[in-house]
Amino acid sequence: MKTSLAGKWVLITGASSGFGAATALKFAAEGSRLLLGARRVDRLEAVAQECLKAGAAATHVHRLDVSETPSVEAFAQWTRTLTDKVDVLINNAGGAHGIDTVANGKDADWEAMVQSNLLGVMRVTRAILPLMVQNPGASILNIGSIAGRVAYEGGSVYCGVKSAELMITRALRLELSGTGVRVGSIDPGLAETEFSMVRFKGDATKSAKVYEGLEPLTGDDIADILVFCASRPPHVCIDELLVKCTAQAAIHKVHRQPAAPAKA
Ligand SMILES: NC(=O)c1ccc[n+]([C@@H]2O[C@H](COP(=O)([O-])OP(=O)(O)OC[C@H]3O[C@@H](n4cnc5c(N)ncnc54)[C@H](OP(=O)(O)O)[C@@H]3O)[C@@H](O)[C@H]2O)c1
Q: What pLDDT is attached to residue 134?
């Protein structure tokens, strides 16, 4: 039977756009209490307003940079002033920076990816775990990627950190065995969010090309899945889920409809 998410404390990192913002809205519609973090606080506040309209029992926002331990610690401290338990932790903050080959890679891009996708998950989980381990049925849901399962040219570090995320998820599940806390990795393929604009450093033409001629996943698609996972009964743990749009049969096999000819 479905577990009600009404009144549950749901903490989402990277809630200012994309999957994170869409997920906040879906949990809001379930009547959850939301703890939202990201660096762009103005965007978080706008998401929080929408969440209240959608039915959230409460929304709280705080600046969070998962790439800095002091910021994560301050966020966790703030969380403890609001609640002594977290029911759902969604480690979503992250993304790809650049698409250079190893030979042409930039230190700043590599460091940003390792700091947010890999160390960010570690820092946030370490800081929030004390609010979860006495709470059987709680869920930790990490956002991985198809890139963590299959390598592609220009994706070396992004593939590497998402692969690490999958292994961290698996190790954490073993470490939490017996606590009743569930740990899962949700691994999306092509999805249209701000992801490509970040990867291509604001180049809208390159970003649009990623989604040309196909119907990609949306933030809502992933948000629905996260709500589904968190609302399973406490004895059900969804360990790993690879989710792709139908057009993406595999990382290197994406079916694109040809563009319609221009009208004379
Ligand atoms: N879209 C895809 O195709 C796709 C596929 C598979 C996996 N993913 C993964 O899904 C997750 C969400 O990405 P998205 O597609 O929703 O892209 P997005 O729209 O760019 O959202 C990324 C979110 O992460 C936050 N973030 C990034 N670095 C952060 C940091 N250092 N500290 C705190 N927050 C940070 C951003 O907020 P601020 O900038 O405000 O901090 C933003 O809210 C990422 O982990 C990404 O790798 C995406």
A: 94
